[in-house]
Structure formats: structure tokens, C-alpha cells
Amino acid sequence: MDKITIDRLKIFCNHGVYEEEKKNGQNFYVTAVLYLDTYPAGVSDDLTKSVNYAELCQNITGFMQENRYNLIEAAAENLAAYILTENSAIHALELTVHKPEAPIGLPFENVSVTIFREWQKAYIALGSNMGDCRALLDSAIEKISANPAVRLLKKSSYIVTKPYGGVVQDDFLNGCIEIETCLSPQHLLEFLHTVENEAGRTREVHWGPRTLDLDIILYGNKIINSEFLTVPHCDMQNRMFVLEPLCEIAPYAYNPVFAKTALTLKKELEQCIK
Ligand code: ROI
User: Fold this and answer.
1) Which of 149, 201, 202, 245 is least surrounded by CB atoms within 10 angstroms?
2) Whole-model pTM above 0.90?
3) Is 99 a catalytic site residue?
């Protein structure tokens, strides 16, 4: 991807842990490497097809001066989210916050933090089999879309499905959405848990009835096996209630563990259950 770099934008502001830093302020410098496609602006010579770096520098300065953080990590994190959500042309961002006047009490040249954040495509499976299922799924999608760090790209139809997993319970209503997000997989998971909790989700019976279930099915082409999260979803290949709505909106969505598309996984599952 192409990039535009803003090098060491000087900003006087008041971030820091110590009272003196909060009161007196000091110089910070921001370096931002913006990853975007410069081709449309390159061939048209039209500023509206790119990022206006003068305007962005003003906005970065405003953000750094209007907000206060103890840590340069927090300043960088929040500034990155602000830049990515306010500028749809920027796909990814490497951001450095330098603090060369930090109160270290020893001779040093600079201290800085550098983070990389990007928009990624992800697929979320939705399910409900308690209460007004349709209203619960609609409201979940509304809440997900209202997060500035998420853009809703596609939404499948809802389908009624028989419960999978052996527990005797009511039929489910299932669907799937395609989103773009600049939340990390872990933060996306935490956000989805808050949406589930707001829908009154409790976790009583394993694989039992639920008001709302939101599962990350795919996140870019990342493979994640952490204590809290497995992506691609570890059982998606066996779940027609996931593959059918997924194939409706993204038949060529790619599962990097199996090196297969959603459509191939669905065809294979259809063969299995025939
Ligand atoms: N079965 C169906 N049909 N739909 C679901 O959303 C669903 N979700 C689950 C279990 C209980 C495994 N079974 C399901 O989590």
C-alpha cells in the first residue's frame, strides 16, 4: 500500500503522570505514517481524493491539546482511533508519539511509543432463540454499527434453524454481518460481549438457550488461538447456521486454517449431512 508520512509534528500539550507535567505542559512530537491508495489522487491531481495533510495536522494538534492522558501509550491509542475513524481513505496507520522532554532525570535523547492500527474486514455470526429474536438481532446490528470503530458493510437475511449441539431447546434465528473494524480481535470480542450483555445474555447452560450470541467467525486472514479467542471460529465448518448466512453475503470469504472459502466449506458440509 502507498503511504503519506507526517514527520515529527510538534505539539505543546499536557500529557503525563506527574502533576508538574499536567500543569506546565511540554513539547510532544507526532509521527504518522498513513497507509492509503494514493492512485486516485495521483492520476486526477485532486485533493478531495486524498487526505489533506494540513487539515490532518491541525486535527492531530487539536486532539492532543483537547485531551489529557497520563501515558503516551494512551495518547497514541486514542489518537490512532481518532485518525482512523475520521478519515475513511486511511486503511492503516503507524503512529509514534515522541516525548523528548520527559521527566527522566538522566541524559537521554528521546522516548517514544509506536503503534500500528488498521481497518480489517471481519464476519460476525448472530444468533438468538429467546424473546423477540428478530428485534434482538436488529438491535445488536444497530449497536454494532453505532460504534465509530466499526463500519457495517453487509447484512445477511435471517434464517430459522434447528438447534445444533444436542441441547433440546427452541429453534434459533441466525444471521451474519460483514464489518470493517479498527478494533483489535480482542477488543472486538470485548465489545461484542457488552452488546450481548445489554441484551440480557446469561451463560447458564453450555450450548443452551440465549437471547443473543455474537461470534467472530473470521477476522481478516488472521489465525488466533488465545485463551479467550479462537479465530477462525473453531466449529464454523460444522455449522450450517453460520455457513448459510455467511455464504449469502460473502461466499468467497476465506478460512486461512482450512485454506478454503466459505462456499467450499458449505458444499463439504452439505455432502456430509446428505
Ligand atoms: N444452533 C443453531 N441452530 N443456531 C445457533 O445460533 C446456535 N448457537 C449455539 C449452539 C447452542 C451451539 N447451537 C446453535 O451456540
Assistant:
1) 202
2) no
3) yes
